[in-house]
Fold:
Amino acid sequence: MNVLSTFKKNRTQLITLAVLAFLFVTAVQGMETKDWVITVLRGLSVGMVTFLVASGLSLIFGLMDVLNLAHGEMFMLGAYVGWTVFVRPDTFVDVLPPLLLLIVGLALTPVWRALLTRTNISGRVAQLWPWAALALAIAILAFTFVEFPITKWNPEVYSESPITFSLALDQGNLIMPEPKPFAASPFVSILGTLIGGSLVAIAFAGFGQRKQAGTMSQHIPRGSIVTAVILLILALAAFWGNDSLTEALVNIGTTGRFFLAMAVATIVGFIIGGVMETTMIRPLYDRPMYQLMITLGISFIVIEVVRAIWGRPEFTMPKAALFTGRGDACPAQNIGDLIANQCSTVILFDGRIRTYNEIFIILVGFVVLFAVWLLLQRTRIGMIIRAGVQDSEMVEALGINVRQVFTFVFALGVGLASLGGVLAAPSIGLSTVMGGQFLLLALIALAIGGLTSFPGAAAGAILVGLLQQFIIKYGQIGINIPFLEEPFKPSPPLVPASVVLLMVIILLILPNGLFGRNE
Amino acid sequence: MGNLLEVENIHTFIGQFHILEGVNLEVPEDSITVLLGRNGAGKTTTLKSILGLTPPREGQVVYDGHAIQGRRSFDIAAMGIGFVPEHRAIFRDLSVLENLKIAERKKGDLARKEEFIFNLFPDLKRLIKLSGMNLSGGQQQMLAVARALVPDNKLLLIDEPSEGLAPVIIEQMMEAIRQLSKNTTVLLVEQNFLMASRLAERYVIIEEGQSVKQGLMADLVDDTATIHRYLGAA
Structure:
């Protein structure tokens, strides 16, 4: 009885899925084995990168009804941050101390907030002093933060531009430029940055206090002090161990550095996401339109910042040694050989398959898919997220601080997009338009899969990836259509068009997407 | 018998609409108090204002000796207030077990209350693995009440527990509320006057956003004039 009623309830959905499966089988039937294997793998690869963008977008939209238009740019930023760790570890090490010192100050915000509730400032002074503190902080930071010497590329000069360093790394003759010495006293810079960061935190605590006077706890959170101390130690270690840390990063080789780049990009994305939610999204939950505008604004700003730092021209990111083996045993004939020789390609079903683009990306995608699924299904916070997607007010009414969960989900979503960026970079290169492209793909994938459904995000993204790759492949080999002399070859403009067409058709049949529910 | 909850002259706005224009009420400890009034009078908003879901702009809410207006909802709820919203707002994507587990405030809350909850609602034990969306209306309502019983709540705000339920289920629900009120104070919104009069010891009538009358239920039952005036034919 249950099976039958489930079938009746979801009839349209099941029929649509069946039709899609039928179309897939037909498309596969029209090709030789080696062609469809590689097409499916490429489709999955693009799908997985799209999924990394779409999953965060869907979680954020589902839980807090925020459409984060800056999500694509976070994807792009992840790629650029990952490239920096991978190709220029010296720059990465140079940037660490000032950034960590700044974060130390910000991490203490809850402590300042607790201390401020014990003071008794009111009236005009209470309104003005946070602004004064903020101005003072900016003035101090302007003199100290920028004093940290950062050895970096120069996009204006070809021989020092990112593309040159990428090529040099690829050919194995990368030489980092000489590190710059400190212009002024390093002690002043360190202390100034710490004080500047703390003042920013005090100012923000002051702004917050005005709004929520009388309702805040005086309890000093011990966790944030511990975090700050750990970060401070790390910052000082990175500062005094600069040379040896750079050397160590160069010596671990490209494979180790690539995994580090993935980790760093994810963490940076996570932190940026958290800061974005608490400072810019949170004050605007009552005004959705403003939220949309602010995420759009952030996306423009991020693009310009990236252009200023890394330059306008596109450049490549070399692949790690793990994926570029070219020994005698390559291309590998089977998976065992592939792992033993770290070949760049492997022969499967007589087709040449690139290890990184068509195997590694898919593997990482599935690992993330599984990990996020576990988080959602098996942990308490996952349970809260799933409940909050339906009714976050009720979750709050149960005594759960939903805002904290909002921040976590926003940070997680941006972190995933950032990971997607660094994962895609060796395959598609780095450019300032990559964010917009994948944001669009991700939005289409969500519309197809169902806006707030996590399985929907995965299915939609994979569907979008597969469809594109099949159209591309059929553009090369042609489709035999009865009564036509020549095989029909879909032209390249049909690739993006096909995805939108699929979305339109699915939305006409299922207005809430494949796995969406009518809320 | 002291008052667990005192609401003093609260004014609540939703958007630009002035919904509550001065609501006063008292909920004595270990009693069942019912909010009566016509549709749209502001009963649900009163509950939500107490909990801070629609924070009152003026007035005072004193719970257990603390002024709680202006605090965040999760803070207020964590002080021991459970909420059973109207329309059986359980989490449809969560299983029955998860719907109960999510309400835990301390580890082991559910384990301690399990027996009591399943005694009140034996059906839920059988459905424990089912997803919320597969429950019937009555089962969903039972789950919504059960969820509010998981943590140690001193006060339960229950909004229209009988709405849209079959008479047999309403009887069961009434019995459950009577049982749980032995160790929990209850503030109830109920359209069904018969059910309200059999359950509650005290009543508060809300009319156009104002509390117009409150007192003992026993007095109201005989006061047909008041019933007609504020509640229509009963």
User: Anything to note?
Assistant: The radius of gyration of chain A is 26 Å.
